[in-house]
Specification:
Number of domains of chain B: 3
Distance between the termini of chain A: 87 Å
Largest interface: A-B, 41 and 41 residues
Low-confidence stretches of chain A: none
Number of helices of chain B: 17
Number of domains of chain A: 3
CATH class of the largest domain in chain A: Alpha Beta
CATH architecture of the largest domain in chain B: 3-Layer(aba) Sandwich
Helix content of chain B: 40-55%
Number of helices of chain A: 21
Oligomer: heterodimer
Strand content of chain A: 15-25%
Strand order of the largest sheet of chain A: 11-14-17-10-18
Structural class of chain B: alpha/beta
Largest sheet of chain B: 9 strands, mixed
Number of strands of chain B: 12
Strand order of the largest sheet of chain B: 1-2-6-5-4-3-7-8-9
Chain lengths: ~500, ~375
C-alpha cells in the first residue's frame, strides 16, 4: 500500500515542503530511503523501526520504500523520523481509515526517540514559515512549541508517536495533544553590565554610542587593561531593541542551528564573540552541508572580535563580503546557499605585538618593523569598512579614583533610540536599516553638506592624510552624529568630530 | 668623470665593490697589490689567496661575490635613474669621503652631491621617534636648511625622515645615505620623500650594489658615510645602544664634532644623546649651537641671522588662537595628552574637544599619534 505524508526540509535559511512517500510491498524485508537523504536522514531508519515497535505497533516485515520528494534537493536533519514512521503506519493499515484523511492535512516534523517519544529538531521555524501557505496543521515536537507559536501556523505538539496515532483516530481531542504556550515573563530591560562601570574613556564611549545609533563598525585600539573588552560587553546594552521582523530573521537562523531557547523569542540583539583561533568556516559558515557561521549568528546584532589582529589573515579577509553586502553566499559542490549576515563589527586590538606602544609606563619592546607588520595584518579593504577607530589610553589611578560615575547605559540608550527613530522615518521606503548601511545614492540624498564643509574636508585630506575613498564613511558617521543631536543637516562640527575616529594611521611617514 | 680610469676598470671596481663582507680598505689594499681591479678579477682563487695572503675560502668568496654582479647592468640601471657610479679617482667623488680610512670603492649617486664648499650637517637618530624628537628634528633641520646648510641623514624611519622632510618642505637640498641599493626604497613609505629629495636638488647615496636588500649589517656600515660627509654630526634621539650612537662614534674617530639634543631623563630615546653630553658632546638647544661647529671656510653664503643666539626666549605664544584653543595647548603642555584628558582639563564634552583638536591639528599646532596629542612645533 502507499501512503503520503507532508514534511519539510531546509535550504539556506528557507524551508521547503517535502512529501514522504511510503510504499509497502511483498518481498525481502528491507527499509530503503531514497531521494538524496543525508547521513542523519539515513540513520533515521533505525530509530523509526524501534520507535514503531516500542509504541505498540507492528513493524511490517515487508519491502518498504521511502521516497523523499522533490528527489533532486538534498535533505538533511532529523525531522524525517516522525513522517516516515507515520507513513509506515498508514501504509501498513495500522491506523483507522479516518486517520488517512487527516494525514493529508498535516505537516509532520519531529525526531523520534527509540521509545517513540518526540524530540526537538532544528529548523522548525523556517520550515513552518515557508510551508504556511499550504494551509496544513503542523505536527511538531513539544520542545519546539515556541517556534510553532511564533510562526503563526496552526499546530499540535503530541508527546509520542502513539499520542499522534490516537489523535488521528479521534481517540484524543486536539486540546490534549497541544501544549499550551506560556511565554516567559518579559525580562525587565536590566543589563547587569552598565556603562557607568567604566571609568573615563569618554571618547571610546562616545564612539560606541555613535556605533549603536547608526550601526557603524568600530575598531578599538588600546593598551592591555584599558577597558576594551569591558566596553564591548556593555555595548549590547545600548543597542535598540529588535523589531518584530528582525527578531524573526535571527530566530530562523538560531532555529536552524538548534540554538533556540525553550520558550522565548530572541528579543535582544545577538552578541557573538568568537575566539581568535576560529576557523574560516566557523566564522563565515559552510561545511559540506552548509551551516550558518558566527557572522550569521550575529545577524542584526554585534560580532565582537577581540585581538582583531590575531585572527588569521584569511578569516579577516572573508569578513569583507558580509561587511559589504550584509550576507554571505556559500558555494559547495553540493549546493549554494545564502545566509543573512548584517552585523555591527566591534573589533579590539593592541597597538603593537607587545601591547605597550604609547604606554607612558612600560616602554614598547617591538621594532618599528614589527609594529608596521602587525598593523599591516589588517588590509586596506577591511579597514575601509570600519567607520570608527578609537584609541584607548590608560586611565591614571588618580583620575580613576576621583572620576565620578559616568553616564548609565539607560541614558545613552535613550539617545540611541531617538537617533534610530529619525533613521526609521528616513529609510521608511528603503531596505536600509541604519545610516551605516546607506547606499551611495542615499548618501547623496541624506548627507548634504554645508558650504563651509569643503574647507574641513580639504584640510583633513591634506593634513591628516585622509583618502578620498573614506569620504563616504565620514559622511555616514557625520549623519549619525547629527541624528544623535536631532539635527536636520550635517554641520561642520559633526564632520570635525568624525575626524577623531579616523583610521589607524600607518603614517610614521614625515609630512613632505 | 676622470678619464684616467678606463671604462673596463670602472666596471671591475663596481664588481669588486659588491664584496660586502670585505672592508673597503682591504679591497683598496688588494687593488694596490694587483695594480687594478681588473687584474684581481683575472686571478683564480689560489693565486689570489697566495698573492694577497688571504685565506683560500675568503678569496674564493670574494671572486664569487664579484662575479655575481653584472657591472654593465649596474651602470645602465643607475644611469636609467639619472644616477652615476663614482670611484675615488673621479673629481665628483666627495673629497670628505675620499679622506676616510674606509672610503667606498664605488659610490652610487642619484641626484646632485653637495659642492665641496657646502656646509653639511649630519642629523641622525632613532627610528622609534617620540613626539619630542619629531619636534626637535623638524625644528633644527628646518632652521639649518633655511640657513643654507645641507642636511645629511640616513633616510630611515623616524628621525632621519623627519630631518629630510624638514629640508624638503623648504625645497632645500638634502642628502640621504641609504642602507640598500639605490634601486630600492626602504622603508617603502619613504618613496615619496626620496622622490622629493631628488626633485629639490638633493642626493640619494649608497655604496651598495643597485638592488641590495635592506640587510641589517648594511646600516651601521653606511653610517660611516654619513659621518664622513658631515661636520658636525647631531644626534637627535636614540637609545644608549643604537645606530645613532654608532654614527657618533664613527664621527669622533674621524675627528668630527658630535653634538647631542638633550632630552627628558626618563625617555629611553634620549638616553643616547644625554650620555653623549655626559661624555662631553656639545649641547644643542637651537640651530645656532650647531652652526658654531661648522668650519669657518664653509660658512660663506649661510644666513647670518641663524647664528644669533637667543635660546632663552620663551616660546612664542600662539598668537592667532582663540582662548579656548589656547587652553587646549596649555592642557597638552610639553607632553602627550589624550582627548579624554584634554576634555577633562577643559571641562568640555567629546564633540567640543574633538572640534578644537581638529582645528589645532589642521593648523599644525598639534600632532596626533596613537590617540595621543603633542605639540608639533616649538
Amino acid at each position: 500500500m502507499l501512503a503520503n505524508v507532508c514534511t519539510g526540509a531546509i535550504k539556506g535559511i528557507e524551508g521547503f515542503a517535502v512529501s514522504v512517500e511510503v510504499d509497502i510491498a511483498a518481498g525481502m524485508p528491507t527499509l530503503a530511503v531514497v531521494g538524496l537523504p543525508d547521513a542523519e536522514v539515513r540513520e533515521s531508519k533505525e530509530r523509526v523501526v524501534a520507535a514503531v515497535r516500542n509504541s505498540g505497533f507492528d513493524f511490517p516485515n515487508k519491502r518498504i520504500t521511502v521516497n523523499l520528494s522533490p528527489a533532486e534537493l538534498r535533505k538533511s536533519g532529523t525531522q524525517f523520523d516522525l513522517p516516515i514512521a507515520l507513513g509506515i503506519l498508514a501504509a501498513s493499515g495500522q491506523l483507522a481509515p479516518a486517520a488517512a484523511d487527516k494525514i493529508k492535512n498535516l505537516l509532520v516534523l519531529g525526531e523520534l526517540a527509540l521509545d517513540g517519544s518526540l524530540r526537538p529538531c532544528a529548523g522548525v521555524l523556517p520550515m513552518l514559515i515557508s510551508c504556511k501557505n499550504l494551509g496544513k496543521t503542523a505536527v511538531i515536537p513539544p520542545q519546539n512549541v515556541l517556534e510553532g507559536q511564533v510562526s503563526g501556523t496552526a499546530f499540535i505538539t503530541p508527546h509520542t508517536l502513539k499520542e499522534l496515532a490516537l489523535y488521528l483516530e479521534d481517540k484524543l481531542d486536539e486540546a490534549s495533544v497541544k501544549l499550551a504556550f506560556v511565554p516567559e515573563p518579559e525580562e525587565a530591560e536590566t543589563h547587569e553590565l552598565d556603562f557607568s562601570d567604566v571609568k573615563g574613556q569618554a571618547l571610546a564611549k562616545r564612539a560606541l554610542e555613535i556605533a549603536a545609533a547608526g550601526g557603524h563598525n568600530v575598531l578599538m585600539i588600546g593598551l592591555p587593561g584599558t577597558g576594551k573588552s569591558m566596553l564591548a560587553k556593555r555595548f549590547a546594552g545600548i543597542l535598540p531593541p529588535l523589531t518584530q521582523e528582525e527578531a524573526l530573521e535571527i530566530t530562523k537562523i538560531y532555529s536552524i542551528c538548534n540554538l533556540i531557547g525553550k520558550s522565548k523569542l530572541l528579543t535582544r540583539r545577538p552578541f557573538r564573540d568568537p575566539h581568535h583561533t576560529i576557523s574560516d568556516v566557523a566564522l563565515i559558515g559552510g561545511g559540506s552541508t552548509p551551516r550558518p557561521g558566527e557572522v550569521s549568528l550575529a545577524h542584526n546584532g554585534v560580532l565582537f572580535l577581540d585581538e582583531f589582529a590575531e585572527f588569521s589573515r584569511s578569516s579577516l579577509e572573508v569578513l569583507r563580503e558580509p561587511l559589504e553586502n550584509g550576507r554571505v553566499t556559500i558555494s559547495r559542490a553540493k549546493e549554494t546557499v545564502t545566509y543573512p549576515a548584517r552585523f555591527t563589527l566591534l573589533a579590539a586590538m593592541n597597538p603593537c605585538p607587545c601591547g605597550h606602544l604609547g604606554d607612558p609606563v612600560t616602554p614598547c619592546t617591538c621594532s618599528p618593523m614589527q609594529v608596521s607588520r602587525y598593523k599591516a595584518r589588517l588590509s586596506g579593504p577591511l579597514l575601509d569598512r570600519i567607520d570608527l577607530t578609537v584609541n584607548l589610553n590608560p586611565v591614571k589611578y588618580a583620575d580613576w579614583s576621583k572620576k565620578s560615575e559616568g553616564e548609565t547605559s539607560a541614558q545613552i540608550r535613550k539617545r540611541v533610540l531617538a537617533a534610530r527613530d529619525i533613521q526609521r522615518s528616513r529609510f521608511a521606503h528603503s531596505a536600509t536599516p541604519a545610516n551605516a548601511f546607506m547606499t551611495p545614492r542615499e548618501i547623496k540624498e541624506f548627507c548634504p553638506l554645508p558650504p563651509e564643509a569643503d574647507n574641513v574636508l580639504e584640510s583633513a585630506m591634506r593634513k591628516l592624510g585622509l583618502s578620498a575613498r573614506s569620504l563616504d564613511k565620514i559622511l555616514k558617521t557625520a549623519r549619525t552624529i547629527a541624528d544623535l543631536e536631532g539635527k536636520e543637516n550635517i554641520e561642520v562640527k559633526h564632520l570635525m568630530e568624525v575626524m577623531q575616529y579616523r583610521p589607524l594611521d600607518r603614517k610614521g611617514v614625515a609630512d613632505i | 668623470m676622470n678619464p684616467s680610469i678606463s671604462a673596463a676598470e670602472r666596471l671591475a671596481r663596481i664588481q669588486i665593490n659588491a664584496c660586502l663582507f670585505f672592508r673597503a680598505d682591504w679591497l683598496e689594499r688588494l687593488i694596490e697589490i694587483f695594480g687594478s681591479a681588473q687584474e684581481i678579477l683575472r686571478q683564480d682563487a689560489q693565486t689570489l689567496s697566495h698573492e694577497a695572503n688571504l685565506n683560500r675560502d675568503t678569496a674564493a668568496r670574494l671572486l664569487k661575490d664579484a662575479f655575481a654582479v653584472r657591472p654593465q647592468e649596474e651602470w645602465d640601471k643607475t644611469a636609467a635613474l639619472g644616477g652615476h657610479i663614482y670611484v675615488p679617482e673621479d673629481e665628483e667623488y666627495p673629497q670628505s669621503l675620499r679622506n676616510i680610512k674606509e672610503a667606498p670603492i664605488a659610490l652610487y649617486v642619484l641626484g646632485t652631491l653637495p659642492a665641496e664648499e657646502q656646509a653639511c650637517v649630519g642629523m641622525v637618530g632613532t627610528r622609534k621617534i617620540t613626539p619630542y624628537g619629531r619636534r626637535a628634528a623638524a625644528k633644527l633641520a628646518g632652521d639649518l636648511a633655511q640657513c643654507g646648510v645641507t642636511i645629511v641623514s640616513g633616510l630611515a624611519r623616524g628621525v632621519d625622515s623627519e630631518c629630510h622632510a624638514a629640508a624638503v618642505r623648504l625645497k632645500k637640498p638634502t642628502v640621504g645615505v641609504i642602507g640598500t641599493g639605490v634601486g630600492r626604497c626602504y622603508p617603502p613609505e619613504n618613496r615619496a620623500l626620496e622622490k622629493a629629495i631628488l626633485q629639490h636638488g638633493g642626493a640619494v647615496v649608497s655604496e651598495l650594489p643597485f638592488n641590495s636588500p635592506p640587510n641589517a649589517f648594511h646600516f651601521p656600515r653606511r653610517n660611516r658615510i654619513i659621518a664622513a660627509l658631515s661636520q658636525p654630526v647631531v644626534v637627535v634621539e636614540g637609545e644608549i645602544k643604537s645606530g645613532a650612537l654608532i654614527t657618533a662614534k664613527l664621527a669622533l674617530e674621524m675627528g668630527k664634532d658630535v653634538l647631542a639634543v638633550p632630552g627628558p631623563i626618563d625617555s629611553p630615546q634620549s638616553g643616547g644623546p644625554n650620555s653623549l653630553i655626559q661624555d662631553g658632546a656639545g649641547v644643542v638647544t637651537a640651530a645656532a649651537d650647531i652652526l658654531d661647529y661648522i668650519p669657518q671656510q664653509l660658512r660663506f653664503g649661510l644666513d647670518p641671522r641663524f647664528f644669533e643666539k637667543n635660546p632663552h626666549t620663551p616660546p612664542k605664544p600662539e598668537e592667532d588662537l582663540t582662548p579656548r584653543q589656547r587652553e587646549v595647548m596649555n592642557a597638552v603642555g610639553g607632553g602627550q595628552a589624550s582627548l579624554d584628558q584634554i576634555a577633562e582639563a577643559l571641562g568640555a564634552d567629546v564633540p567640543e574637544a574633538a572640534s578644537l583638536l581638529f582645528e589645532l591639528e589642521v593648523k599644525g599646532f598639534l600632532a596626533c599619534e596613537n590617540g595621543l596629542y603633542s605639540r608639533s612645533k616649538f
